[in-house]
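Q: Hi! First time doing this. I have a protein sequence and I read that you can turn it into a structure. Is that right? Here it is:
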Amino acid sequence: MKKVLLVTGASRGIGAATALLAAHRGWDVAVNYSTHAQAAQDVVVQAIAAAGGRAISVQADVANEGQVLAMFETVREKLGPVSGLVNNAGVLDVAARLDEMSVARWRRMFEINVIGSLLCAREAVRQMSTRHGGSGGSIVNLSSAAARMGAPGQYLDYAASKGAIDTFTIGLAKEVAAEGIRVNAIRPGLIDTEIHASGGSPNRVRELEHLVPIQRGGTALEVAQAVLWLLSDEASYTTMSLLDVSGGR
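A: Yes, that's right. Below is the predicted 3D structure, encoded as C-alpha coordinates:
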Protein backbone atom coordinates (compact mmCIF):
# COMPACT_ATOMS: atom_id res chain seq x y z
CA MET A 1 0.00 0.00 0.00
CA LYS A 2 1.31 3.45 -0.91
CA LYS A 3 2.00 6.01 1.77
CA VAL A 4 -0.39 8.94 2.01
CA LEU A 5 0.88 12.51 2.13
CA LEU A 6 -1.17 15.59 3.00
CA VAL A 7 0.28 18.90 1.84
CA THR A 8 -1.46 22.01 3.13
CA GLY A 9 -1.59 25.13 0.99
CA ALA A 10 -0.67 23.03 -2.03
CA SER A 11 -2.49 24.83 -4.83
CA ARG A 12 0.62 26.83 -5.76
CA GLY A 13 4.22 27.64 -4.88
CA ILE A 14 6.22 25.36 -2.61
CA GLY A 15 3.13 23.34 -1.70
CA ALA A 16 2.28 22.55 -5.31
CA ALA A 17 5.89 21.65 -6.11
CA THR A 18 5.99 19.36 -3.08
CA ALA A 19 2.73 17.63 -4.01
CA LEU A 20 3.87 17.01 -7.58
CA LEU A 21 7.30 15.72 -6.58
CA ALA A 22 5.78 13.47 -3.91
CA ALA A 23 3.45 11.92 -6.47
CA HIS A 24 6.36 11.25 -8.82
CA ARG A 25 8.12 9.51 -5.95
CA GLY A 26 5.24 7.17 -5.23
CA TRP A 27 3.12 8.89 -2.62
CA ASP A 28 -0.65 9.15 -2.77
CA VAL A 29 -1.23 12.87 -2.27
CA ALA A 30 -3.95 15.00 -0.71
CA VAL A 31 -3.71 18.55 -2.02
CA ASN A 32 -5.19 20.98 0.48
CA TYR A 33 -6.34 24.44 -0.52
CA SER A 34 -8.29 27.23 1.14
CA THR A 35 -9.62 29.38 -1.71
CA HIS A 36 -7.78 28.46 -4.94
CA ALA A 37 -9.95 25.48 -5.90
CA GLN A 38 -9.16 25.50 -9.60
CA ALA A 39 -5.42 25.75 -9.01
CA ALA A 40 -5.56 22.78 -6.63
CA GLN A 41 -7.62 20.80 -9.11
CA ASP A 42 -5.14 21.62 -11.84
CA VAL A 43 -2.30 20.25 -9.71
CA VAL A 44 -4.25 17.05 -9.10
CA VAL A 45 -5.96 16.40 -12.41
CA GLN A 46 -3.63 17.86 -15.02
CA ALA A 47 -0.35 16.90 -13.37
CA ILE A 48 -0.52 14.12 -10.80
CA ALA A 49 -3.38 12.10 -12.29
CA ALA A 50 -2.07 12.58 -15.83
CA ALA A 51 1.25 11.13 -14.70
CA GLY A 52 -0.50 8.06 -13.30
CA GLY A 53 -0.50 9.16 -9.66
CA ARG A 54 -3.36 9.01 -7.18
CA ALA A 55 -4.45 12.27 -5.61
CA ILE A 56 -7.37 14.27 -4.31
CA SER A 57 -7.92 17.95 -3.62
CA VAL A 58 -9.54 18.87 -0.32
CA GLN A 59 -10.69 22.29 0.87
CA ALA A 60 -10.01 23.49 4.40
CA ASP A 61 -8.97 26.66 6.16
CA VAL A 62 -6.23 25.30 8.42
CA ALA A 63 -7.11 27.87 11.11
CA ASN A 64 -10.62 26.38 11.39
CA GLU A 65 -10.69 23.31 13.63
CA GLY A 66 -13.90 21.89 12.21
CA GLN A 67 -12.61 22.15 8.67
CA VAL A 68 -9.28 20.54 9.61
CA LEU A 69 -11.08 17.61 11.29
CA ALA A 70 -13.25 17.15 8.20
CA MET A 71 -10.20 17.32 5.93
CA PHE A 72 -8.36 14.56 7.78
CA GLU A 73 -11.46 12.39 7.75
CA THR A 74 -11.88 12.93 4.00
CA VAL A 75 -8.26 11.99 3.37
CA ARG A 76 -8.60 8.86 5.49
CA GLU A 77 -11.77 7.80 3.68
CA LYS A 78 -10.48 8.42 0.16
CA LEU A 79 -6.77 7.59 0.42
CA GLY A 80 -6.13 6.07 3.84
CA PRO A 81 -4.53 7.31 7.06
CA VAL A 82 -1.80 9.87 6.57
CA SER A 83 1.81 8.83 6.99
CA GLY A 84 3.22 12.18 5.93
CA LEU A 85 2.21 15.78 6.59
CA VAL A 86 3.73 18.92 5.11
CA ASN A 87 2.57 21.99 7.04
CA ASN A 88 3.00 24.45 4.20
CA ALA A 89 -0.09 26.69 4.41
CA GLY A 90 0.84 30.19 5.48
CA VAL A 91 0.29 33.88 4.85
CA LEU A 92 2.41 37.00 4.53
CA ASP A 93 1.17 40.58 4.79
CA VAL A 94 2.47 43.80 3.27
CA ALA A 95 5.79 45.16 4.44
CA ALA A 96 5.42 47.39 7.50
CA ARG A 97 6.99 48.37 10.79
CA LEU A 98 5.57 47.07 14.05
CA ASP A 99 4.10 50.48 14.89
CA GLU A 100 2.14 50.38 11.63
CA MET A 101 0.62 46.93 12.16
CA SER A 102 -2.87 46.07 13.44
CA VAL A 103 -3.92 43.42 15.93
CA ALA A 104 -6.20 41.98 13.24
CA ARG A 105 -3.13 41.39 11.03
CA TRP A 106 -1.30 39.62 13.87
CA ARG A 107 -4.28 37.43 14.68
CA ARG A 108 -4.67 36.34 11.07
CA MET A 109 -0.94 35.66 10.81
CA PHE A 110 -0.74 33.51 13.92
CA GLU A 111 -4.07 31.73 13.42
CA ILE A 112 -2.99 30.46 9.99
CA ASN A 113 0.79 30.14 10.32
CA VAL A 114 0.96 28.80 13.88
CA ILE A 115 -2.40 27.51 15.09
CA GLY A 116 -3.08 25.99 11.67
CA SER A 117 0.20 24.05 11.80
CA LEU A 118 -0.48 22.87 15.35
CA LEU A 119 -4.00 21.75 14.42
CA CYS A 120 -2.86 19.76 11.39
CA ALA A 121 0.04 18.22 13.28
CA ARG A 122 -2.28 17.19 16.11
CA GLU A 123 -4.58 15.34 13.73
CA ALA A 124 -1.63 13.78 11.94
CA VAL A 125 -0.22 12.51 15.25
CA ARG A 126 -3.59 10.99 16.07
CA GLN A 127 -3.37 8.94 12.87
CA MET A 128 0.38 8.24 12.78
CA SER A 129 1.41 7.59 16.37
CA THR A 130 1.97 4.03 17.54
CA ARG A 131 0.40 5.22 20.78
CA HIS A 132 -2.86 5.58 18.85
CA GLY A 133 -2.46 2.38 16.81
CA GLY A 134 -0.72 4.01 13.86
CA SER A 135 2.41 2.86 12.08
CA GLY A 136 4.45 6.05 12.36
CA GLY A 137 5.17 8.79 9.88
CA SER A 138 6.89 12.08 9.18
CA ILE A 139 5.91 15.72 9.61
CA VAL A 140 7.70 18.55 7.85
CA ASN A 141 6.88 22.10 8.91
CA LEU A 142 7.58 25.06 6.66
CA SER A 143 9.41 27.69 8.64
CA SER A 144 11.49 30.49 7.13
CA ALA A 145 14.96 31.97 7.26
CA ALA A 146 13.07 35.00 8.58
CA ALA A 147 12.76 33.13 11.88
CA ARG A 148 16.47 33.72 12.55
CA MET A 149 16.81 37.05 10.68
CA GLY A 150 13.79 38.81 12.20
CA ALA A 151 12.64 40.64 9.03
CA PRO A 152 12.90 44.11 10.64
CA GLY A 153 10.96 46.89 8.97
CA GLN A 154 9.14 44.44 6.75
CA TYR A 155 7.54 41.29 8.14
CA LEU A 156 8.59 40.86 11.75
CA ASP A 157 5.19 39.40 12.65
CA TYR A 158 5.68 36.76 9.94
CA ALA A 159 9.19 36.12 11.27
CA ALA A 160 7.80 35.73 14.79
CA SER A 161 5.22 33.23 13.57
CA LYS A 162 7.97 31.19 11.92
CA GLY A 163 10.08 31.39 15.08
CA ALA A 164 7.13 29.75 16.80
CA ILE A 165 7.20 27.01 14.15
CA ASP A 166 10.87 26.35 14.90
CA THR A 167 10.15 25.94 18.62
CA PHE A 168 7.09 23.82 17.90
CA THR A 169 9.14 21.56 15.62
CA ILE A 170 11.76 20.97 18.31
CA GLY A 171 9.19 20.24 21.03
CA LEU A 172 6.96 17.96 18.98
CA ALA A 173 9.94 16.03 17.61
CA LYS A 174 10.97 15.15 21.17
CA GLU A 175 7.39 14.42 22.20
CA VAL A 176 6.63 11.81 19.54
CA ALA A 177 10.06 10.42 18.63
CA ALA A 178 9.38 7.17 20.52
CA GLU A 179 6.02 6.81 18.76
CA GLY A 180 7.42 6.35 15.25
CA ILE A 181 7.04 9.98 14.13
CA ARG A 182 9.85 12.22 12.91
CA VAL A 183 9.31 15.99 12.94
CA ASN A 184 11.53 18.44 11.06
CA ALA A 185 11.32 21.90 9.55
CA ILE A 186 12.54 23.53 6.37
CA ARG A 187 13.59 27.19 6.52
CA PRO A 188 13.48 28.57 2.96
CA GLY A 189 15.20 31.83 2.11
CA LEU A 190 14.38 33.98 -0.91
CA ILE A 191 12.26 31.63 -3.01
CA ASP A 192 10.58 32.76 -6.21
CA THR A 193 6.89 32.10 -5.44
CA GLU A 194 3.62 34.02 -5.44
CA ILE A 195 3.81 34.78 -1.70
CA HIS A 196 5.92 37.89 -2.38
CA ALA A 197 3.17 39.39 -4.51
CA SER A 198 0.66 38.79 -1.72
CA GLY A 199 3.05 40.71 0.53
CA GLY A 200 3.07 43.64 -1.88
CA SER A 201 6.57 43.00 -3.32
CA PRO A 202 6.27 40.85 -6.47
CA ASN A 203 9.87 41.64 -7.49
CA ARG A 204 11.36 41.04 -4.04
CA VAL A 205 13.49 38.05 -5.04
CA ARG A 206 15.15 39.86 -7.93
CA GLU A 207 15.67 43.00 -5.83
CA LEU A 208 17.41 41.11 -3.01
CA GLU A 209 19.15 38.20 -4.75
CA HIS A 210 22.47 40.11 -4.68
CA LEU A 211 22.43 39.61 -0.88
CA VAL A 212 22.39 35.82 -1.28
CA PRO A 213 25.85 34.21 -1.35
CA ILE A 214 24.74 31.93 -4.22
CA GLN A 215 23.65 35.15 -6.01
CA ARG A 216 20.14 34.07 -6.97
CA GLY A 217 16.77 33.27 -5.54
CA GLY A 218 15.73 29.68 -5.03
CA THR A 219 12.93 27.74 -6.71
CA ALA A 220 9.93 25.98 -5.24
CA LEU A 221 11.30 22.71 -6.61
CA GLU A 222 14.56 23.15 -4.71
CA VAL A 223 12.62 23.48 -1.48
CA ALA A 224 10.37 20.54 -2.40
CA GLN A 225 13.39 18.30 -2.94
CA ALA A 226 14.55 19.02 0.61
CA VAL A 227 11.04 18.36 1.96
CA LEU A 228 10.86 15.02 0.17
CA TRP A 229 14.22 13.98 1.58
CA LEU A 230 13.00 14.67 5.13
CA LEU A 231 9.84 12.69 4.43
CA SER A 232 11.76 9.74 3.02
CA ASP A 233 13.37 6.73 4.67
CA GLU A 234 16.73 8.22 3.69
CA ALA A 235 16.17 10.62 6.61
CA SER A 236 15.19 7.83 9.01
CA TYR A 237 17.56 9.06 11.75
CA THR A 238 16.76 12.74 11.24
CA THR A 239 14.29 14.43 13.57
CA MET A 240 14.17 17.83 15.31
CA SER A 241 16.20 19.36 12.47
CA LEU A 242 15.76 22.90 11.15
CA LEU A 243 17.12 22.69 7.61
CA ASP A 244 17.99 25.96 5.89
CA VAL A 245 17.36 26.07 2.14
CA SER A 246 18.50 29.63 1.68
CA GLY A 247 21.48 29.81 -0.65
CA GLY A 248 23.75 30.62 2.27
CA ARG A 249 21.81 33.67 3.45
